[in-house]
Structure formats: C-alpha cells, structure tokens
Write a structure and sequence with these properties.
Elements (H helix, E strand, L loop, with lengths): L11 E3 L7 H4 L2 H33 L11 H5 L16 E6 L2 H8 L5 E5 L8 H15 L5 E2 L6 E2 L7 E5 L6 E7 L2 E4 H19 L5 E4 L5 H17 L8 E6 L2 H4 L2 H7 L4 E6 L1 H11 L19 H16 L3 E7 L8 H21 L3 E4 L5 H11 L17 H5 L8 H19 L5 E3 L2 E3 L1 H16 L12 H19 L1 H6 L2 H12 L9 H12 L1
Parallel strand pairs: 2-3, 2-13, 3-6, 9-10, 10-11, 11-12, 12-13
Antiparallel strand pairs: 1-7, 4-5, 7-8, 14-15
Helix pairs in contact: 2-6, 2-7, 5-6, 7-9, 10-16, 12-13, 15-16, 15-17, 15-19, 16-19
Length: 538
C-alpha cells in the first residue's frame, strides 16, 4: 500500500489498501486517539470477551440467565440518568441503514426524527466500506454530502430539517483487521467511534447537536462500563465536556435483558435510552440456551414480539427506562414496500401498523423502520398515541417481569418450510455480505446480519437436539443436507448460472453449512466470514 500520505504514530500500522480520500480520515491526530484508546482499553475488552466464554460454559451446564445478586442495590436505588438533549426528545420514528452515501442522504431526508447510520449489522465490513462510510459522515458535517448516481445520473442532496444523526459503531466482539496497534488488531468499535468523534465533534457542536451513538451487542453492565470509560477518556483527550457524547444501548442479547438497570447506571452520564434489538435478541436466546432442550424455538416466523420472552423483555425495557428517565425504543419493522403487488404491499403495511400500535400502546417512546416508505405509517401511529414528544410519563411499575417470563418459550410449529426459509435467507445474505452489501432486501423484508445468525443458529439447535418437525420427521444432518441441496438447486435456477458463479454463493453455502453442523454453536458467523472478506479483498 502507498502510505506516503498517511503519517502513523509509533506502534500503529495501517494494513488496508489505499482508498481514495483515506488520507482525510486516517490523519495523525485521529490515529493517535485510536492508538491511545486501544492501549488503554483493548486488554479490558478482550478480557470481557473471555468472560462471555466462561459464562457460556455455565449456560451449557444448565445454569439460566438471571438478575445479578451483586447489583441488587442498583436495581432498588432511586436514581436517574442525566438530562437528554433537546434534539433527542422526539424519537417517534427512527430509520436505520448502512453508511452508503446515497442511503445517508435518503434516510436523513426520509421524514424520520432520527437516522441511525450503521457501521455494524447492516454494513459489510470491507475496508472500502469502513473508510468510505467515515468519508460520507465527514462530508455530511462539512456540507459536502451531495451525490450523483453513476448509473442513473440522478442527483441526491440533503433537504432542509434532516433527521438527527446517530452512529452505530461495531460491537465489542469485532476487530478491525486493517489497523494494528503494537502488533494486535484493534477494536472495530473503538475505530468507528473514535474516528467519527475526532473528525466531527466540532462541526456537530457548531450545528447545535451532539455526537450521538447506538451501542450494540453488549452482554453485561461491565461491557457498558467499558464504553463509559472510553467516552470519558476520549472526551478528555479532545477537550469535550464530559457527558457530551450520548448513547442509546441496544438490548439485543439475552444476558443484557437481566441487567438493564445496571447498564443504564454505568452509562448514566451518557445514556439516553435503550432499544429492543429484537432480531439479534432472538439469535442470542437461541445461542445462549443452545444446549438446553427446554428452550427450543419454533419456526422464526412464529417468534413474534407480542408473546412469550419477546413480550416480557419489551415490557421490562419500558418499565426500566421510564423509571430512570430514559427513552424506551421499540424494535425494527423489517417489512419493505412491495412493488407491483398492491395486495401484498397493503399486507406488509398492515403488519407494520399492528406492530407499531402494540409498541406505542405498551409505552415505547419511538420505534425503528428500515425503509423510508414506512416512515409515514409508523409516525402516524405514534403521533396519534403521543400528543407530545415522548411518553416518559408512562409508568409500568404495576407489572412484574420475572426470570421465568424472560425465558418463556414461544409456542408454534417446527416445519420443513422453516428450515427452507433459514437456508434461503441465510445463504443469500452471506453471499451479499461477502460481496460488500450488509442490508439486503429478501422476500419483502430488509435483512441484516442478524438474519443469517438466526438462520444458522436455529438449524444448529434443531440438529443438536434431533428436534421433531410437525410432520413427525426428525431433523438430522441427512434431512438438512437434502433440503440445502434442493434449495441451492432452486436458487441457481432462479438467479441463473452466471449470476451464481460470479457472486459468492458457493462460499456462502460452504460457510452456512459448516456453521449449521458445527460441533459447537459458534459465537458469531460474522467472525469467520470476516476472514473471508479480508482474503477476497486481498
């Protein structure tokens, strides 16, 4: 790589290929902040990941997640989070999407109250995507975000009154392979966060808003404490007042659902709310209880928000947040508009309306959508329910959510079609991800990495426990491979031989099959898949 334009601090190496405009991002000051944060907090991050592994060993022996006894005083205490900035008071509808330039413009112009731009599950972490995403956000704050589509020559410009921007860095489990500090890969989350903060905090402040973040995939309050330490350290380093950085934490792992008070407490100077990250939460439920035969889920399509453990965790999130003065954000509506089929389109919209009405009536302050076409639907629901900016005054102190409630298994069937859906969606998503796309429309739903994780984890669990389908057949490796082969054949015919061969489908099938039949339920599919991305790009 030509590194002539990149001045690196001692002990830091940039291993990624040259990307146009990269010198604007990888400045010496920015890299110094990254190196400083990595040296101060990298070891602690790695130790917390080891702690996850140790906790999983307990779950594998039959221990169930529960509310920590050592933090009872925090749950019983009378405390609140710090005040919430004015431009985050109304979050009735939040749109999410990757850091692609056109997507950033369209999402900011969508009419949603906020836009969560995503370096995590809806971004394939190629080096080009990572760097270009940071360039896009730098250009945004410098009023240089215009874009012309090279295929259509259509111009995209930022409209007046855009949505408030929130950035989601990658989770603690992910590393950025293209930068090393002292011979080790750095935390991907630290890279995403520090780079964005370093370059943009001054312009953000000048424009009357703040550096706002969504924090994903945390399992414990100690992982939240680590983020708080990173916030404090980086704000001091950049002479930013403590508490300027504001975060919303996604509750999308099963252990975190038992530590919501504690997560809010550890981040209380910086946190503004929690969010129901429902799709990753389903994956986490399967993964953490994978060896326990009492917690085998039905088809993914039957694991719905209004029932069983998903309903319980959503209600507990509202109760906990409002007690502490924080926002309770609803989950993703994955539906997208259906072109050229009015009936299917209305059915999709009706599902969104029903989902959002449930959230608003339960007490959520806002919700997520994945497509601009869904913003008006969700906004109408929340506007009708909430006359002001939010419903922080709604208390659920009259309800009690127990450990048993948070673990209650959804009822439903386990079907061959359920396996086929997992195969179709999982393989196609992985292929797209390997090719650099992280948000993929499939079968009228917007899918991200959680989709593939649910798909392979569910098949793994059914195989592990020789689960019976509703027709009496046992899910074994022979049946799985027969279905896999059949679905691959159908996909090849649908997509065409050339499209199949020129994509990453064979590698995607290999990864999906290997992880579905692996002796152990692997932590994350995206970890080995990331190594494939690196090898492809190199």
């Amino acid at each position: 790589m030509n590194t002539n334009s990149i001045v690196t601090p001692e002990g830091l190496e940039v291993l990624g290929q040259q990307i146009p405009g990269m010198e604007k991002i990888l400045t010496k000051g920015c890299l110094e902040l990254i190196a400083d944060l990595e040296r101060n907090f990298g070891k602690k991050r790695r130790n917390l990941l080891i702690a996850r592994e140790e906790k999983q060993k307990e779950y594998n022996k039959g221990v169930l997640p529960d509310f920590p006894s050592e933090t009872q005083s925090i749950r019983d205490g009378d405390w609140k989070v710090a005040s919430i900035p004015e431009d985050l008071q109304d979050r009735k509808v939040e749109i999410t999407g990757p850091v692609d330039r056109k997507m950033v413009i369209n999402a900011l112009n969508s009419g949603a109250k906020t836009f969560m731009t995503d370096f995590e599950d809806s971004m394939s972490p190629t080096w080009e995507n990572v760097i270009q995403g940071q360039i896009n956000l730098l250009d945004l704050w410098n009023d240089e975000i215009d874009f012309v589509d090279p295929n259509t020559e259509k111009e995209y410009k930022l409209a007046d009154n855009p949505a408030v921007l929130i950035v989601r860095p990658r989770g603690w489990h992910l590393e950025e392979a293209h930068i090393q500090v002292d011979g080790k890969r750095i935390s991907a989350g630290i890279f995403d966060y520090a780079t964005y903060l370093f370059h943009n905090h001054q312009k953000i402040s000048e424009k009357g808003t703040g550096p706002y973040f969504y924090l994903p995939k945390m399992e414990t309050y100690l992982e939240a404490k680590l983020w708080n330490e990173v916030f404090e350290h980086s704000q001091r380093s950049l002479n930013i007042p403590i508490g300027t950085c504001k975060a919303t934490v996604l509750i999308e792992t099963l252990p975190a659902a038992f530590q919501m008070d504690e997560i809010l407490f550890e981040l209380k100077d910086h946190i503004v709310g929690l969010n129901c990250g429902r799709w990753d939460y389903i994956f986490s439920y399967i993964k953490r209880l994978a060896l326990n035969s009492n917690y085998i889920l039905p088809d993914r399509s039957q694991v719905v928000m209004g029932e069983a453990f998903l309903s319980a965790y959503s209600l507990l999130l509202i109760k906990t947040c409002h007690k502490r003065g924080a926002f309770a954000m609803g989950g993703m509506a994955a539906q997208i508009p259906v072109k050229n089929d009015d009936q299917a389109n209305e059915q999709a919209f009706e599902k969104v309306r029903n989902d959002k009405e449930r959230e608003a009536n339960n007490g959520h302050d806002g919700t997520w959508v994945a497509h601009p076409g869904l913003v008006p639907i969700a906004l109408k629901v929340f506007d009708n329910k909430i006359p002001g900016n939010n419903q922080l005054d709604v208390s659920l102190d009259n309800i009690s959510i127990t450990q048993q409630d948070l673990l209650k298994v959804h009822e439903g069937e386990r079907t061959e079609e359920g396996i086929r859906e997992c195969v179709r969606v999982g393989v196609q998503y992985i292929a797209a991800w390997l090719g650099g796309r992280g948000a993929v429309p499939l079968y009228n739903l917007m899918e991200d990495a959680a989709t593939a994780e649910i798909s392979r984890a569910q098949i793994w669990q059914w195989l592990k426990h020789s689960t019976n389908l509703d027709d009496g057949r046992t899910v074994d490796e022979i049946l799985f491979k027969e279905i896999l082969a059949d679905e691959i054949k159908k996909l090849k015919e649908l997509l065409g031989e050339d499209y199949w061969n020129n994509g990453n489908y064979e590698k995607a099938v290999e990864i999906f099959e290997k992880m579905s039949i692996s002796p152990e339920c692997e932590e994350f599919l995206t970890l080995p898949a990331y190594e494939e991305i690196i090898s492809i790009s190199n």
